[in-house]
Amino acid sequence: MAYSKKVLDHFDNPRNMGSLDKTAQDVGTGVVGAPECGDVMKLQVKVNDNGIIEDAKFKTFGCGSAIASSSLATEWIIGKSVEDAMKIKNTDIVNELALPPIKIHCSVLAEDAIKAAVRDYLKKKEQKSA
Amino acid sequence: MKNNTIKKFPIYLDYQATTPVDSRVLDAMLPYFTEHFGNAASRSHEYGWRAEEAVEVAREQVAALLGAAAPKEILFTSGATESNNLAILGVAEMYRDKGNHIITSTVEHKAVLDTCKYLETKGFEVTYLPVDQFGRVNVSELRAAIKDSTILISVMLANNEIGTIQPIREIGKIAKEKGILFHCDAVQGVGKIPFNVEEFGVDLVSISAHKMYGPKGVGALYVRRKNPRVRLAEQIHGGGHERGMRSGTLNVPGIVGLGKAAELSNQLLSEEFERITALRDRLFKTITTKLSDVYLNGHPAERIPGNLNLSFAYVEGESIIMGLKDLAVSSGSACTSASLEPSYVLKAIGVGEELAHTSIRFGIGRQTTEAEIDYAANRVIETISKLRDLSPLWEMAQEGIDLKSIQWTAH
User: Fold this and answer.
1) Is B335 among the catalytic positions?
2) pLDDT at position B227, please?
């Protein structure tokens, strides 16, 4: 299978790989996918008081396209407001990485991971203010 | 003998998929493309005689490899897929009035399984025997599956994915005792482990040239002529070549290549068995000394020398293959197959889907060197370590979280 240069680059040099403290109040964690489906993504965001994503980290179990999609997602959301991060569509990832049709689910998973992480952060914030 | 170097990148470790043509095989074939180009069926001139002679030499070479009583028992085909089709369809059609039941196993090659499925649509009944955790058929289960209507048992010598060797000798005894024909797809085992149609009690055997350093597009089917005399309904019509069981002009250069490949495999068998087993064990040992959570798929002892199938927990197969760019290996992961289904063989031996996604098959063969094995082992260790650092599952496992306790969001 031929991969695009961008997929190969993210695979060889994953951006923002790692973990943030999932117990911290300003960190939201999203884990999506399932091992038996062959892909699991964990994406985390650290949000400042102005609602801007200051940092993001990921870890992914999956094929090269899944790893690249989540690596790209972290790169895109850092510096964005949580509202703007929620607007990222899987099709943006497909276009940027030139993913073939068989790999579209990887981009869907990355979109879901962003949403799950942001929602987790918002939930923590709500509980804190409640 | 073998110089201990790395010849070329990517390092070829996929010998169960195919093998390079041995230079001695190629040399034997070449004159039959140009100088001796005759049709082996031409009885009226020197060109035809020469081609026929070469085909008969190859028949003897293949017969010798299989331990056949007579060269006449060897039919040449276009490959093992055709041999398997001819054996199964040919028996089914010829012995239809005796019964309609066939016994095979769930881990057979698709050329056997799909042929059996086809026969099910034509009124045949097929029992697909399950296998144990190592991929072996249980002989008492096989015995219990036999009915009055059973006309054929088809079980492979060794599995192409996990390398497990089946108890062919025991199955052969049962088949003989019950008077049922026994076909064996021996593609992955013949020339690599001792095999003999008389000792093993097999009536039909499929082999392929390109799995034993011969050319692609040629294979053979052994068809027993005595005790019992096996008859086959021909599946390709037109001219009555090969004792009327397989029509079509013979692929003389290919057949010469198959013959030479068979002769070489026969000569080199014990030497290669030892050398390749040592390489495989070295690869396994080096990897498992450095990495934890690596599981061997297939039988620990009853396996062909050149096969090592491993599951690397917590990392996905396609990403492993991508990381191992300079190794040519294959994966049981869904992502690398056209079907998006993980390997049915791994499923049959009870490997969970999450581990099936993490499996890699290393195929070692005649040209593999120790230097290549050491390089490969180090690349595997590096790549798996890197991918585990990237894996959320590995992280959870290190934290002591039971992955089975998590509610995953399937998608």
Assistant:
1) yes
2) 94
Looking at the complex, report in whole angstroms how far the Cα of residue A54 sits from the nearest Cα belonging to chain B.
Answer: 21
Chain B positions touching A60 (Cβ under 8 A) are 390-392
CA B111 to chain centre: 11
Q: What is the mean pLDDT of residues B349-355?
A: 88
d(CA A124, CA A107): 26
Helix or strand holding residue B360 (H, E): strand B359-363
- Percent of chain B exceeding pLDDT 70 equals 96
Per the CB < 8 A criterion, the answer to whether A3 and A97 are in contact is no
pLDDT (tens digit per residue) in B238-261 = 988 999 999 999 999 999 999 999
Chain B, nearest residue to A43 by Cα: B392
Asked whether the ipTM of the predicted complex exceeds the cut of 0.90, the reply is yes
**From the candidates B293, B316, B358, B393, which should be mutated to test the interface with A, based on the most A CB atoms within 10 A?**
B316
The separation between CA B300 and the C-alpha centre of its own chain, rounded to angstroms, equals 18
Question: In this structure, are residues B14 and B328 in contact, taking their beta carbons and an 8 Å threshold?
Answer: yes
Contact A62 B319 (CB under 8 A): yes
Q: What are phi and psi of B149, to 5 degrees?
A: -90, 5
Task: Please compute, for residue B235, the number of CA atoms within 13 A of its CA located in the half-sphere on the CB side.
Answer: 17
Tokens for A118? 């942001």
A63 an active-site residue?
A: no
